[in-house]
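Predict the 3D structure for this chain.
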Amino acid sequence: MNKRWIGIGAIALVLALPFVFSGGAGSDAKSVTVEPVTKRQVRASILASGNLVFREQAQLSPEVIGKVSEILVEEGDLVEKGQVVMRLDEQVFRAEVDQQEANVRQQRINIDRQKLNVETQRRQSKRSEDLHARGLLDDNSFENARHAFELAEVDLRGSREGLRQAEAMLSQARERLAKTEIRAPIGGTVIAVDIEVGETAVSSATSIAGSSLMTIADTGTLMTEINVDEADIAKISEGQPVSVYAAAFPDTAIDGEVRSIPLAPRNGGTGGTSSLARDYSVEVALTDTKGLALRPGMTCRAEIFTASAAETIAVPVQAVFSNNEATADVTPGKGKVDIEHHLFVEKDGKAERRVVEVGLSDDSYQEITSGLKEGEHVITGPYKILRHLKDGEAIEVKASDDKDDTKKTAEAKDAQ
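Done. Predicted structure below.
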């Protein structure tokens, strides 16, 4: 009898277990986080990197070869345009000028001698002509006299051409002598002196020792050159605002704006055959340096704001999804492709699927142009639940955890 009651109790316990566990587990609602819909500024941007440079900068190189005899400035000195900042040894060039001056004087003496000879031959030719007319001089002697006169005139013209050549060579020698004085091509500050007294300055287009003398720059023209990929260059236009972050001050945004956009890429050029990615070197003027001690050559990153929507309804980008397949609009003549975007809104403890229209987006927020009202609560995560959520599914709102699913933003944008 007792065994029968024990058996009946065991069966009843087994039948009651599902109800016990069901009651302990609660409902099937999925735990999600939500965020109230508010208005905020959304700014579409492009990220790029580059360097700080001076817009007006000149690197001085010698045009003649010679030893440095004198350096008249030091790093940090202010110089004016045309000021002599360095001198090379001029002894060899001075001797060359003296030689060419002597050559010019010799050519002038030759001209004077040729002039006298021409006058002498002219008189003899005239006298021979008179004697020949009176029959006192034979034809051969008359022709010789006239030929000597013409030859003297030719020699005079040759001496005059020799003088012009000598004067040209003298001008070149003086120009080479003048180039031993190195002058500042622009006004500014000496930011580097690359050679010392006694070293040899070498005129060369390559970066060999002695080919660089010093660098002068207008320190008030500090700007940024950033490299924009060819896929993004069409979105860039002059005057767009830019936030620049120097490597030395990574947390401080330096205000700037796009100054100029090149027509040709930095590498490859027009008609180049390089298979490497092409970058365009965009100049960005710094409008407010925030008093930071910036230096040329510093690396930096830049955020170029290509479009802006101020005070618009926006939601986190991970909350917005799009259909994977685009449906073609069958309306004749349009040839347009529609992509549907949707998100989920918390309403009465359930997830309501809402089709929306989107606008601009930045790294964090997506503009919603229609389909959503301010004050509603949009479901923002976790992403592993949100991506499989269905319309009308029961949800339970939990406190937002910033550490939950750190990759959800990037995954959500890739999914779109």
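DSSP finds five helices and 23 strands in the chain.
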